[in-house]
Amino acid sequence: MQSELLTLTGVSLAYQTVAGETVAIRDLNLKIKEGEFLAIVGPSGCGKTSVLSLIMGLLPQSAGTIRCEKPDLRMGYMLQRDHLLDHRTVEKNVLLGLEVQHRLTEQSRANAMHLLDTYGLGDFKSYKPQQLSGGMRQKVALIRTLALEPDLLLLDEPFSALDYQTRLNLSDEVYRIIRREHKSAILVTHDISEAVSMADRVAVFSARPAALKAEIPIGFPASMPPLERRRQATFHDYFDRIWEELQP
Amino acid sequence: MRSKPVSDAHARYLKSIRRDARHVRLSQIGILLFVLLLWEIGADLRWFDPFILSSPSRVIATIARLYADGSLWLHIGTTLSETVLGFLLGTALGALIAVLLWWLPKLNRILDPYLVVLNALPKIALGPVLIVWIGAGMASIVVMGVLVSLVVTTVTVLNGFLAATDEKQLLMRTLGATKLQIFTKVVLPAGVPDLISALKISVGMSWVGVIVGEYLVSKAGLGYLIVYGGQVFKLDLVMASVAILCVLAALMYYAVAFLEKKVRT
Questions:
Q1: In the CATH scheme, what is the homologous superfamily, with its name and number, of domain B57-264?
Q2: How many Å lie between the alpha carbon of B109 and the closest alpha carbon of chain A?
Q3: From B173, which residue of chain A is nearest by alpha-carbon distance?
């Protein structure tokens, strides 16, 4: 595929607490290419989320380097919960990131509104978050992230708080959005099927301290959406391979 | 409340809701009338001594007399202005301190035990000290009203701020927000309901502070009338003042509740 976007070399992270030191990540090497969809799976509590925090710069790593290969790489972070602000309308929620970063212009606003229209939320602009369903709220959260026009999306279990049906539908939709907007993405999840159905490559993490255990390229074409991937015969082969790798 | 019925069953449902609301309102008025009537009849028939317990007609006569000699507005005005001033200063100052403590978490940790003690302390105990420090006048009474509402406002508003921060801090950090932005875009708007509940609590607290302040030191006001009436055994005067106080406190509470409704919609 294309050029490298981000390189993690020998990255470690240790959390300090009064009781002692917890090593969350040990000597992690990871690369993501432009336009690539990488999924990270691992046992819960293994430090997957910490990797995203490190990449985003919310936490300083204890050792190693994180290098952006592209100057001014813009990143957008999507959290497990939508965290929409109740006192703002859908429109105002979507514009929050732009406001905070002082990038709210006629053009960026129009772009954000266009995203809302394109992805079926145009009629809900003046609604308050409480009036939306869980799936819609999560979609608003995604558009809030996309409005910042990030090159790389960091998705931290963005579907795990949803019911199963919404989850499948929304992951399908988010996948199409990300591909259509030509974004790169790192998806952190504990759901193997979700990883196989969305990613170009799956990185399997070991239990804490997290280290890269295996990298499994997924051979589906990028044009094949998650729901269709789930119907392929080879889907279960990928599932089984990752399952094997996850066993301690 | 007045929505259009969409079916017969819905019409019956709406009707039953309205009937319920009417019952509640009628019962409320009924209780008031019953108590007033019993009180009046009891006094007329000498079931008790109206000199000790007064009666509605004597209360009304007393208020009319106060009105006639022109002192009614003086007493109401004095107490009302002291309360409103104490209430406004107390909540404004309390909210300001809450902002400061939110902004400086370390200061919050340092001052925490002091805040706990101040919150638990009956502020009224400081009355005599205030009179010595500030003087036997209206200023002492207002400060008492401020003190009583200040701490409870600080604690309520600060807790609201901190709860909002916990929730949304991570999101704002992923967006790259500064502390000021976190405050203005998340914490302050989310804290408005807590600010309003603090207003509702402290509006009652200010009345307590001011009335007690007037008990201790005053030349006018409803608290003064109550103490004076008690000392010279004019229970009509005491009851009349309490009745006026009831009306004023209720009006002020409903004003805050009205404000709340405005803000919430």
A1: MetI-like (1.10.3720.10)
A2: 18
A3: A58
